[in-house]
Design a protein that fits this description.
The protein is an alpha+beta fold. The protein has 16 helices and 17 strands. Strand 4, helix 4 and strand 5 (about 115) form a beta-alpha-beta unit. Helix 3 (about 50-65) crosses helix 4. The model has no long low-confidence stretch (mean pLDDT about 95). Bound molecules: 3-hydroxy-3-methylglutaryl-coenzyme A (HMG).
Length: about 475
């Protein structure tokens, strides 16, 4: 049975900081953010928003747009790593908010859980819900899979340049208008790691930035290896001599902690895939340097990062490789459009990959490309660490959804924060009533209880 993404909606908070203002305040060259990381603006939540609000606002959008009744939703899953409760699942909060609009008990039948595995958990939730549909358990109902996060790092750290916030919701069913998942190819890799983690009670993560960059690429490459084996074994793909699996994927959507990470990851995966192929010889000639190899043949992540001579040479080689016409062609045709939204919004952790998918659809459609039947490959990564690679085919009805996508319009009106305002928000100095904006027709947080008997209870309203 077919299963896939029928529609997709986003909710992005309306406050943002500008990369140039931010760089100036931190004494960093603005080019490092804009060109080096690919960050132009970072969305920031107001005092009356939390990840549950973002998720509920996204759900309301998709339900209203598709005129969905609560009865037609069989499951509601939320994936997040910005959870504020160790026990109560975020989908319960979201259902509470939605019932303020649809009536008490309207979602009583609707099962679901909150899933966690850093940024990859949304992909696991998507896979599980697709399998619920494939198993025939959905009985004509839809699943809502929501990915919602606030990417927040300590002030003054290098992670602070890669913040953002927002939610993406995907409507999953057996007649998807956007994308049908390829069956029997979903591939995962997993390893106990400490590249990025957030211990109990801490609002911001502990991050080993460069380690996390490399680990992301290694883990996705491992998952891609498994994907390749499955795609060949299942007959989904047949490789002719000199071909790579990437030749059979029209668009690549990668997890985007910052937009240039997509490009970095693409370069890494392409090098890995092309190295064994006849085309590599010509590329090496064009680069004019041999591909560097680390001193330690075990090639562990620590030994690679510790090998400074190799790292410097590899950095230079990668820079030259990304300038070759062969790389430029694959970058422009398969990846670039997915990076546009990330530059304007920043890291959304679990939601980053799917914001990238949304971006790819909108901007490829605007280029006038017929997307029907194109294969989209997804490279999902979550710290801690796990990767998932899967793919799907764009469906004939995609235009029904994509023609109305307009990121600029959806983000407007946005308000630019001064650095002073941003820092006040970052340090949680204001209460929900002291919000910077007064939005209408949105769910907002009004109170977090501080009494001993009801500590942490949250109250939300739909702001009419
Ligand atoms: P950094 O180490 O300060 O930056 O922080 P850098 O020195 O690596 O510079 C970044 C890029 O800017 C480099 O480009 C520089 O050359 C360039 P590259 O070599 O990579 O091509 N650059 C400049 N370009 C133009 N003009 C200049 C200039 N200066 C430098 N003047 C880092 C970067 C990502 C490490 C940091 O922001 C960080 O720690 N972020 C958080 C962790 C993160 O995002 N990791 C990504 C992989 S792990 C992941 O994706 C999982 C995650 O989403 C969490 C989860 O799963 O839950 C984070």
């Amino acid at each position: 049975m077919t299963a896939g993404i029928d529609d997709i909606a986003i909710y992005i908070p309306r406050l943002y900081i500008d990369a140039a203002d931010f760089a100036k305040a931190r004494g960093v060259d603005p080019e490092k953010l804009q060109k080096g990381l690919g960050v132009s603006q970072m969305a920031i939540v107001d005092t009356n928003q939390d990840p549950a609000c973002l998720a509920a606002n996204a759900c309301l959008k998709i339900m209203q747009k598709n005129k969905l009744s609560p009865e037609s939703i069989g499951r509601l899953y939320i994936s997040t790593e910005s959870s504020f409760d160790e026990s109560k699942a975020m989908n319960s909060y979201v259902i509470g908010m939605l019932e303020q609009v649809y009536g008490q008990g309207a979602f009583e039948h609707c099962g679901g859980v909150e899933t966690k595995f850093a940024c990859v958990s949304g992909s696991y939730a998507l896979y599980d819900n697709a399998n619920w549909v494939r198993a025939g358990e959905a009985e004509g109902k839809h699943a809502l899979v929501v990915v919602s996060d606030i990417a927040k790092y300590d002030m003054g750290t290098s992670g602070e340049m890669t913040q953002g916030a927002g939610a993406v919701v995907m409507l999953i069913n057996d007649k998807p208008r956007l994308l049908a998942f390829d069956p029997k190819v979903t591939a995962t890799s997993i390893k106990d790691e400490y590249d990025f983690y957030r211990p109990f009670g801490k609002e911001t993560p502990i991050v080993h930035g460069q380690y996390s960059n490399l680990l992301y690429m290694i883990q996705v490459r491992k998952a891609l290896e498994t994907y390749k084996k499955k795609a060949l074994a299942s007959g989904l793909m047949k490789l002719e001599a000199g071909e790579s699996v990437l030749d059979h994927i029209d668009y690549l959507n990668m997890h985007l902690p910052y937009s240039n990470m997509g490009k970095k990851a693409l370069a890494y995966l392409v090098r890995h895939e092309w190295r064994q192929l006849p085309r590599w010889k010509k590329i090496i000639q064009e680069i004019g340097l041999p591909e560097p190899v680390p001193k330690d043949p075990r090639g562990t992540i620590e030994s690679v990062l510790g090998d400074q001579e190799f790292m410097a040479k590899d950095h230079e080689f990668t820079k030259l490789f990304t300038k070759t016409s062969e790389f430029q062609e694959i970058y422009e045709s398969k990846l670039a459009s997915s990076l546009i939204a990330s530059k304007m919004i920043g890291n959304l952790y679990t939601a980053s990959l799917y914001l990238g998918f949304r971006s790819c659809l909108e901007f490829e459609y605007q280029r006038g490309i017929d997307l029907n039947g194109k294969r989209v490959g997804f490279g999902s990564y979550g710290s801690g660490s796990s990767a998932m690679v899967f793919s799907g085919l764009i469906q004939p009805e995609y235009k029904e959804i994509v023609k109305d996508m307009n990121l600029e319009a959806e983000l407007a009106p946005r308000r630019k924060l001064t650095l002073e305002e941003y820092e006040i928000l970052h340090e949680n100095k204001l209460t929900p009533e002291e919000s910077m904006l007064h939005t209408k027709k949105e769910f907002i947080l009004v109170n977090v209880n501080t009494t001993v008997e009801s500590m942490g209870e949250r109250r939300y309203i739909f702001n009419e």
